[in-house]
Design brief:
- This protein is mostly beta strands.
- It has two helices and 13 strands.
- Strands 1, 2, 4, 5, 7, 10, 11 and 13 form an eight-stranded antiparallel sheet that branches. A five-stranded antiparallel sheet has the order 3-6-12-8-9, with no helix packed on it.
- A hairpin with a 2-residue loop joins strand 4 and strand 5.
- The protein is globular and about 55 Å long.
C-alpha cells in the first residue's frame, strides 16, 4: 500500500511539473506588425543578396523607362544596397525613368512615408527627381495613371555627391485604407552633360 501511495504521489507531482512548463503563456508568440511598405534594396523578397550594378528587378517593383533607355539599377557600397537612376552616357537626348513600388495600404498606425535620398553630378534643376503616389496605377502604364506629387526633401545642385539625406516625413493620413503605389521619377539626358546626373534612393518605409 505504501509503495502504491508513493507511486501515485510521484505521478501527480510529475504531472503538475510538466503542466506548468507548457502553459499557454509560454507558447504565445509576439505579434509581428508588418509595415505596409518597406524596402532597403539589400535583398530580394526571398532574401537573396542583390548584386552590385545590376538592373533593379525586385518582385512587385516596376522599373520603367518611359522615354529613353535608362533603367534604375542597384548599387552596393560598403555592403549597403540602394537604387540609382543615372542618365550618364545613355545616348538618349531625353530620359524619363520611373521606379514604382508594389501596391500598399496605409493604416491608422502606419501612415508616415520616409526614405533616404542622394544625388551625384546633378548641376541643373531640369535634371530632377520627383516623388508621387497614385490610387489608379494599373501596374504597367505610368502615363495613364493619376500621379499626385509629394512634398519631400530632395538634394539640390549644391548637395554633396552621394551623401544621403532624410526625405522628411510625409503624412499619408488622407490615404489611410486606400490602395496606393509610390513612384520615383527622374528626368535627365544622356547627351546633354548639364542633365546627366544621377539620383540614389534607399530605406523606403511607410511606418
Amino acid at each position: 500500500m505504501k509503495n502504491n501511495f508513493k507511486l501515485l504521489l510521484v505521478t501527480a507531482l510529475t504531472s503538475v511539473l510538466f503542466t506548468g512548463c507548457v502553459g499557454d503563456d509560454d507558447t504565445v508568440l509576439p505579434h509581428y506588425d508588418a509595415l505596409p511598405l518597406s524596402q532597403t534594396f539589400n535583398t530580394t523578397p526571398d532574401f537573396t543578396p542583390i548584386l552590385d550594378n545590376t538592373i533593379l528587378d525586385i518582385d512587385g517593383w516596376q522599373n520603367i523607362a518611359q522615354t529613353g533607355s535608362a533603367l534604375w539599377r542597384v548599387q552596393v557600397y560598403q555592403s549597403n544596397g540602394y537604387a540609382e537612376l543615372s542618365c550618364y552616357q545613355t545616348g538618349d537626348p531625353v530620359n524619363v525613368s520611373w521606379l514604382v513600388s508594389p501596391e500598399f495600404i496605409p493604416t491608422e498606425k502606419h501612415k508616415t512615408l520616409s526614405f533616404e535620398v542622394a544625388q551625384s553630378y546633378v548641376t541643373n534643376v531640369a535634371n530632377k527627381l520627383e516623388v508621387f503616389v497614385s490610387e489608379d496605377f494599373n501596374g504597367t502604364d505610368v502615363a495613364t495613371a493619376t500621379w499626385v506629387p509629394l512634398t519631400v526633401n530632395i538634394p539640390g545642385t549644391s548637395a554633396v555627391y552621394f551623401e544621403f539625406m532624410d526625405s522628411g516625413n510625409v503624412d499619408l493620413t488622407q490615404y489611410v485604407d486606400k490602395q496606393l503605389h509610390l513612384a520615383f521619377k527622374v528626368t535627365g539626358s544622356g547627351t546633354n552633360t548639364n542633365l546627366d546626373g544621377s539620383y540614389q534612393i534607399d530605406n523606403v518605409n511607410v511606418k
